[in-house]
Structures are given as C-alpha cells and as structure tokens.
Amino acid sequence: MSENSLFPRRSEIFKGDMADVRDSIARPSIDTFYQVNFSFGKYQTWLEGTIPDKRRTQARDFQRKMSLLCTQAEIPGTQYQTSTATGHHQGIVEEFPDFRSFPPLNLTFYCDADMVILEVLETWMSYINPIQTNQRQTNAYTRFNYPEDYKEIIHITKFERDTFIGPSGGYKSALSSYEFVNIWPTNLTSMRVAYGDSNVLRCNIQFAYDRFFTRFNYDETNQAVITTSDLVNSSKDNPKGDFPKNESNIYSV
Questions:
Q1: What is the 3-state secondary structure (H, E, C) of 54-100?
Q2: Mean pLDDT of 126-142
C-alpha cells in the first residue's frame, strides 16, 4: 500500500446532491425521548419500612413515580487514565491505557407535593451512614452499612418518536439502554426556596457506580437484574449478555 493511499481520494469526498444524504441527516436523535428505570431490588432494606403508600404516589409505586418525575438524565461517558512509555521507540513518547474510570451520573427530579422523591433519596443516603444512637444526643455517632445492602441498579433507555409506531409504519428506530451496576447516591444538592415568582422545586442528585453496560438496536424493553445471584444466573442462561424483557410501558418525559 502506497503512502498516499492512506489519505482520502478525491472520489471519496462527497460532492453529490443533498437529496442523496437527506435520509441520513434528517434523522437526528431527540433528547426529550427517554426513560429512567429505578430497578431497585434492595429498597425494602434501605427504606426501612417507610415505603410511601399509594395515596402519596397516586396509585403507583414510588419507583414509577420517580421515573415519571425524572426531568433530566445523562447518557454516560467513560475515560481512560493513561501512563507514558519513553524510549520504546527512539525519540517517541507513547501513551497506553492502564485504568478506565466512569464519571458520576447526575439526575434531576421535579419534587412532588408529597415529598416522596426527597423522602426516598434522603432515606437511602441516611441508611448508607446511619446514626447509631439517638440523633439528638451530643454523643451520637454514625457507622457505615455494608455496600451489598444499598447498592442498586438503574437503567436509562433512549428511544425516538417513531420507536412505537405500528407495524405498517415502515422503518422505525429501535431502543438503546444503559445499565448502571452497583449505583448509590453520593451528593444530594441543596434546593433554594424563596418568595417571589413560583417555580417547580427541583432536586439534583449525583450517583457513583462501578460500571455500566450498553445494548443498542433492540425491540424489547429492559428489566433490572436485582441481585448478584440473578446476575450470575442471567449471564449463564443468556451468554450474549442481553437484558431480560420487561412488560412495562415506556413513555416520553
């Protein structure tokens, strides 16, 4: 192969009519079509018997209400920490990956009038590092719980306008999902309340997690693997790593 062949040829540079690429550039992804699924499997432990009743969740479970009120989410990124090698090739400093890190996940919620969202998040964070004695005592102390009891799974599913059109609608976009493993809250930001023009109270929270898995271009919705043993069994039964199916509906926020 000649050295010049590494560069694009004149014939490879697009010079055609816009109609030739219209179908490609006219189908961008819209950022308002998504769903966050709080696939909690251990909430009965860290909610400590304070699960909100159906009156406060409007006849839905609190996980579905959290999904409905999650007004902003993030598609995750990833980053490699690198190290350099000098002298392997004379006069060249090379860089190699040695550690992969994942940025925190940030979610924003509309706070409901029944304060279900805040109660769930506050209780979750309080369980991670609970006060062991009467919290009003001056000699009160805290002790961390085991991470196996409070680390959960969250899914973010991205879809498009045409994902759920009928079978006679022609081509339609498929689903894409991200599964965050061993996720837990690290930072619940403060919320300002003040006199003046009324606005919807918003809650911002940051999560840490061990890793995430992705799945693209599939037709069925996802369901969480809620325990470690289930995750092992699922991987044995499903060697391709596909997410299990879920019967719940997906909607646009």
A1: CCCCCCCCHHHHHHHHEEECCCCCCEEEEEEEEEEECCEEEEEEEEE
A2: 84
